Every structure is written in C-alpha cells, then in structure tokens.
Amino acid sequence: MLKSPRLVLRRIVAADASVLWSWRVHREIVRSLPAPTLNGLRAFVRETLQDRSRHQFMAVAGGEPIGLFRLYERGLSDRDIGGLLAKPAWGLGYGTEVARVLLDYGFRRLKLHRIWATCDVDNARSIHLMKKIGMKREGRMREHRLLGGRWRDSLLFAILDSEWKAKP
Amino acid sequence: MLPITTARLVLRDFVEADWADVQEYASDPEVCRHMVWGPNTPEQTKAFIASTLPGQVERPRRKHELAIVMNGKVIGGARLDIHNVERGEADLGYTVARPLWSRGIATEAARALLKAGFGELKLHRIFATCSPENAASSRVLEKIGMQREGLMREHILIKGRWRDSLLYAVLDRDWNAIA
Questions:
Q1: Fold of the domain spanning A2-166
Q2: Rounded to two decimals, what is the model's pTM?
C-alpha cells in the first residue's frame, strides 16, 4: 500500500469492478474505463490480479475510491504510468498527487530507469499534469488509439530516474 | 500467411535446425551492436529459436518471429509482433547478416511484413524503433514509408549503456497510398 498526504493507493480487489462500473455515469470517464461493460471490467480486474507485473492501484481518499492508476511493465526497465480519476475528484490535484507517488515508487523502490505515459492529443488536463510532474514530451503517435469509433493521436511523455531524483 | 515469398527472399517460421545459420550472424558483434541481445553463444541462439516456437502455434497468432531465407540459407530475422489486437498495433524489426548489408534485404523483408500486416492481418498501425546512431536502419524505415514520430530518451540498455530510440510508424492508409 502506498500513501500520500491525502490518499492511500491500494492494490485493486475483485469488488472494484463494480466501483469502476459506477463511474460510467460520467461521459468523460466512460471512454477511459478499461472495458465498456461490467463483465469486461470484471475480466480486467481478474487479469490484473493474475499478473504481478501490473501494478494496478485504486486511489482512496477519505475511504472513497476515487481513481484507478497503474504502473505497468512493458519491456526492459521501461514502464508506463496511467490512470483515471472519477469525475467528482477532478480539479483537486489528486491526479498529480497519485502520479508523484507512483513515480517515487517506480524510481526508488522498483529502481526503474525510465517511466513513460501517453495521453490523447487534446487532453489538456493530462498534458498539464505530466508537465507538472516533470515529464518531457518525446513524440506524437499518430492514430494510436480508437476512441468513440475515431482514431486519435497520442502524445508520448517520459521522465528518467536522474530527472526525478534531481527534483528539489 | 506463411511462408511469405518475395523476389529474392522467403520469410518462414524458425525451426530448431536453423540455429547454426543464425549463430553465424548472431555471434557477429557488428550485427548486434544496436541490439539488446548478443553477441550470442550457441546456447543463446538455440534458446532464441526455442523462444519463437510457442508464438508459431498460438491462435489467433500475435508473434511472427521469422527467418529470412535466401538461396536456402537463413541470413537474418524479421519480426512482426502484434501488441494490441484492439488497436491493430504491431511492431516490426529485422536483423541481416553482415555480408549481405547494403543490398536492400532488410527493406525487402520489412516491406513484405507490412504487406502481410496491413493486408491479411488487417493491422492499423505498425511501428519500429531504432538507434539514432543506426543510420542504415533509419533509412530502411523511411524507405518503407514510416514517419518519424519521436525520440525516446534513454529507452533501452544496450551493452551496459542507456541508449535513445527513434520511434517510427506507418498507418494502413499511408501504406495503401504508396503500395
């Protein structure tokens, strides 16, 4: 379990599938959920629990699950972070707080060299967050993701352990 | 889909007996200079070939780690690895034995994989990474219609040194426009 001043990050559990499902009431979230149906979300949670290289966390604030975040291994010393926040938790700096906890966990505990993330080219909130935590833009992946039936470009951001540890 | 035949080459699944041919190039330090692996011992080459076998029988098939064969001899390897089925996204890579460099072998093999990837496999996006110091490989990726999309800093550890990677990609519609 990881902690920050306002949050606890715990490993996801089977019951989280219905928590994720309840977040679908917010249209902006629906597109980011790992699956579009309750059964799909159950399968996602099941697969996550079986694969230890997926560090998938539920962020909890004041006893309330507010976001799903991951630090996910794909290849040698190159992991990505990602996540989504339930709409009521937007604008409170929770995303930044969780991302910083995950970077610290990745660089200090898992001894990673590099952590990357992608976001939709028009997702101003995510872009702002990634810059704020010190990630640098490295590229633009054309038609990387299918969103609501349309291909969308993704921006690629990354941060190195040396950059993270040099931060004041 | 397999074997894939081009003007000069055949791309097919590896078999255990290929190890001696593979070892000829996989033990060459120049060939593996920009690779995470190598130079290989015979055991490492046999282990590599064994590692490609499960992908050959998986259905639906995602990993295509193929031998490049010219005149009956394995002279390199080519890979098309589907990462994300939903997004139709795969990555491509290749290795060619040094005596055959500068003869368009990698280009010919890579083009054949794009044709199969966007054709039969109905992929949407195929990407590749290469070292900024590997001009020959960049040229191959540009020749087959890939566009440079970014520079991933200190992306992989090669022979004890962190190295940047250029990211290249080609979309199905780019391919259809040039093919």
A1: Aminopeptidase (3.40.630)
A2: 0.90
